[in-house]
């Protein structure tokens, strides 16, 4: 049984909805967490070994758990937050738990690429720590940060498709339900093609934005 175009459009919309909201909430967690991982490390703006070790440990724990396992492991948390463990809304919860620490690590790496001379110059001018972060550190790393968020978004697209294995909705669910379980190879190739186009579009857009920022 072949799916019709309305089912594909609905699945695409569900994927976009999952990825969009997951990215938003993940960034709200990952951005400040990534900044803290940088400024609390030894020799940085707000050195705090205990806090750094705790944050670093938490990020490492979540980063070491494969998404498909995390998806099942936090089912009680998902049910508590959204009232169910199935569907697009429920999938957003594990996606945020998965992508938040991932974004934090990407942000950390981007900020660490900034030349220490920039920070030293800002301190010499008498800038406060929060001014150094938002007026010097982040602007200097902005091009790299855009690429980091692009990578995270592409990762979310892949994870959202994986969530289809447990009824998460979206293109992944459509591919598994029809392409795998009902041996509908046409649907499988269509969803695969859409996902490839999405990833290519996201990566190209991110690259162009990063390049433009770097040149400005």
Overall pLDDT: 91
**Which sequence of SSEs, written as H and E, runs from N to C?**
HHHHHHHHH
Supply the CATH superfamily name.
Answer: MetI-like
User: Which strand-content bin applies to the residues?
Assistant: under 5%
Straight-line distance between termini: 52 Å
Could you give a short account of the major beta sheet?
none
What would you report as the Rg, rounded to the nearest angstrom?
20 Å
CATH class: Mainly Alpha
Share of helix among residues? Answer: over 70%
Going by helix content, strand content and strand pairing, the class is mainly alpha
Q: What name is given to the CATH topology?
A: MetI-like fold
Tally of individual domains: 1
Q: What is the number of helical segments per DSSP (H or I, 4+ residues)?
A: 9
Note poorly predicted spans: none
* CATH architecture annotation name: Orthogonal Bundle
Structure characteristics:
216 residues, single chain, mainly alpha, 9 helices, cell membrane
């Amino acid at each position: 049984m072949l799916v019709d175009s309305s089912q594909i459009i609905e699945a695409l919309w569900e994927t976009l909805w999952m990825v969009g909201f997951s990215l938003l909430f993940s960034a709200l967690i990952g951005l400040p967490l990534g900044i803290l991982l940088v400024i609390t490390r030894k020799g940085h703006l707000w050195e705090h070994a205990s806090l750094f070790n705790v944050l670093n440990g938490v990020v490492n724990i979540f980063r070491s758990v494969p998404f498909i396992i995390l998806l099942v492991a936090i089912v009680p948390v998902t049910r508590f937050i959204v009232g169910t463990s199935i569907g697009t809304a429920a999938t957003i919860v594990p996606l945020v738990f998965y992508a938040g620490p991932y974004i934090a690590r990407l942000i950390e790496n981007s900020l660490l690429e900034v030349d220490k001379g920039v920070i030293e110059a800002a301190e010499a001018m008498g800038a406060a720590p929060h001014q150094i972060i938002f007026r010097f550190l982040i602007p200097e790393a902005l091009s790299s940060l855009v690429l980091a968020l692009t990578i995270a978004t592409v990762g979310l697209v892949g994870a959202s498709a994986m969530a289809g294995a447990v009824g998460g909705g979206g293109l992944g669910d459509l591919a598994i339900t029809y392409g795998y379980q009902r041996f509908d190879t046409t649907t499988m190739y269509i969803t695969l093609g859409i996902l490839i186009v999405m990833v290519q579009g996201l990566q190209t857009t991110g690259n162009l934005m990063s390049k433009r920022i770097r040149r400005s």
